[in-house]
Protein: CRISPR-associated helicase Cas3
Amino acid sequence: MLDESVWGKSRGLDPGLAPYPLIRHMLDAAAMALHLWDVFLSENQRVRIADGLGLVGEPGRARAVVGLCAGLHDIGKLSGFQFCSWHGSQYLSAELSGDRAGMSAERFGHDVAGLQSVREVLAGLGFAADGELRAAQRLAEVVGGHHGRFHRAEDGIAASFLGGAAWARQRSAHAAAVYEALGAPEAPGVFKASAAVLATGVVILADWLVSQEDYLRKRQRELEPVLADHFKRSQKDAPGLLAGAGLARVRLQRKGFAQAYGIQGEPNPLQRSVMEELPSAVGEGRCGGIFLVTAAPGDGKSETALEADRVLSEAFGTQGYAFLLPTTATSDQMHGRVATALSRQEGEDAGLTLVHSMAWLNSAYADEDLEAQSVLTCEEVGEGSGRMETDLRPQRWLRGSKRPLLAQFAVGTIDQALMAVLPVRHNALRLLALSCKTFIVDEAHAYDPYMQVLLGRLLNWLGAYGVPVVLLSATLPASVSDRLIKEYLQGAGHKTRALSKQTFPAPYPGWLYVDGDSGRAAQISSARRREQARARSMELGVVVEPVVHGSDGGARARLAVIERLLKPVSEAEGGTALVVCNTVGDAQDTYLRLRERFDERSHAQGGSVQLLHARFPGDVREARTREVTQGLGRTGPRPLRRIVVATQVVEQSLDLDADIVISDLAPLSLLLQRAGRCWRHENYWARHGYPGGRGRPAWASGPQLVVLDPITGGGAVPRQWGEVYSEHLLATTSRTLAGIQGGTISIPDDVQHLVEAVHGNSEDFDWNNPGGSETKAWTAHKGKEMAERSMAGLLAVPRARSVSTLHDLHNLPGEEDEWEVSTRLGADSVRVLCAYVHNDGRVTLDVEGEHLLPQATPDGKMPVSLVREVMRRTMAVRADWLKEADLDSIAPPKSWTQHPMLADLRVLHQPVQGGSAQPVKVGGKTLRLDKDLGLVRK
Structure:
């Protein structure tokens, strides 16, 4: 008989009652998994799982197998686990508690115990007959992976940990109860690894949903006498739990283009082509497809992608989309646009999350939104000769570190998606989250070789799952797009040898669609492509100004040249200019010079010279980004004169229009991105009128990009740029610009040719006629590129069809977790808080001394509002800036050391003298947070 004294949940529940019985929790999870199959999984996911189980056309059987995986997920708790909680173990029956001494000597994870014991249990149920041993083994791997990490089947545990015959009988009894509640499902003949990964994601999600503290406390008080009634109650409760977590699906009320996106006028030719021509290109697709959009900056690629989602999601049975971008700033901007588009289509109740490391600091989230339900997923915290398992309880539901991608609609940084193909905990949950929706990658050109390999690996898995993918770019080299498309097709089942003989050239501007099943390519019609080219044609004037960095250049000194170029803006007619610098230090120096010359008022005082870069505290950066986009945006009001000095933060997804763009020399693809902020809305304003009736100044006779080039004329690349850009790409860009005929670039006609000239395959380097420095730069560039690709290849999980055992997804030495692997090479950073130390010893968050540095309670707790107040004043800096610092001098307050976010901060204690913050020496340099300049490093 089944012994309900075996407990499943204890911590966090009512201590005056018996713990929550294990069988009840197992049935809860099984019921939730069935509900997730019915309403949360997309039709595409159900098809992929059924196919992986060899049950095509039998979705009911596949559903039951997934329910069985969830129902058996905690079978390993019938082990020495029962003695890790004194409160739980004191309720055990005499027959089971008699083994306490022998079973608790060594501590092992109950996930590994489940992996080791579930095959025997399944055999006892008659589930694992001779022909289904492989399926039973895979199911055991899923059970062993329900805490987010897959283990090897040969990972042993002490036999004593599983207990004697009485414990074995209870494992069989618990499993039989679940098995019978699910209608005694038949074993599948196969269980492919890719399907098992999705099943694991369902198990993890089901476990988390039914492990919410409030729900468990309620069920603990109201246990039904009969297990069958308990299971019915669990099934009845499942919809409410899913909706309460923000994961219920919403069907949008599709509106016309202008109404859906709030755009005046008709869709442009590119967008009309997607609406009219893409449906026939997709046809009756069965295995997803990959859709590439190539168009100049400002051509409405974001709306094009959302229109493509309408077509692709209907064809392939996905629901919602993940819109991924390169940076947190671009993600924040896109989140607002997507939220507006959803609300216009009656999607206010749809789950929309912002997905990046600091997303919860965004003003879109109110403090009360962050006080989400605690989830109790692990009880084991102990030591022994076996593995020690840490407390993995999620602290915030849906807003937490891994769950935002589960929402029906998600906007965030690409890093959050790339974690799905790195060997970190819960990568299966990320793959589940991504495989149910259309996958959209904006600014696909913006990723280095390391990230391109990771993106390709993710596309391989999405191809295996038949997920429709949309890639957007204005400047993507053909070699990169071809490689990404082939990775997707390889995941969809196409042979590598056959793909090596194919190429997939994309029209520019336009779109290319490649079907995952047939590999057939279709593209925008020639008529629509020509129409788009005409509609967005622009002759961009390009002026190369030789400059000298430093103060010894005379008239050619960089700052003197910029000052000369901007003189017309300071005169009566005014105008707008964007100056893009390659480093924060250059931007700060440039801003100071221009502020002195054109407007002595600071940015905060409303001066006409503004500064924007990444080294401002989060709240200041958010406010400045908003000010800049409002001043140079499409709707205005447009200022009489405005000079914006910025870094690369304005290259991507910020909707800016300047009368002239002045830029430091950068790789050509990025120069074109920067030039996309010049006369960006001219065609729109020509049709609908300029904001406030203020047109272009007379001196701005046409769009113009001025490139400040230190190489032309025999100069060298500034040393500080070497940390940002390849010297080879800069030199090649300099030569390419010098060869532009007539000093103009025809957009869009010349774009792809120029991109290929600099960023295309450079294997044809002319070894017969190179200069010494040129050869050295090319060798360094290619060596770095190869090293990055190799590193990504070593870290990434195998391709979807190459996985043998699920442990392949975590097959790295040690216990790698998210902070031990990176989606970006060279991205090691720390978050710094600049605090102020006053003469009376007070430490405050502001130089005025009005807001004391908050202190946490002894257990590390602090109100969310105070945590937000601290974190919004932090900024990311390079970790090596602080490597020589005295760790005690930059350590956070002792009361913060138990807080999951505050504990990792570094605090810069700036003395306040005469009302001003003084610099602090760190590692041979001084750091100081200036209200107007941001963090200054000298």
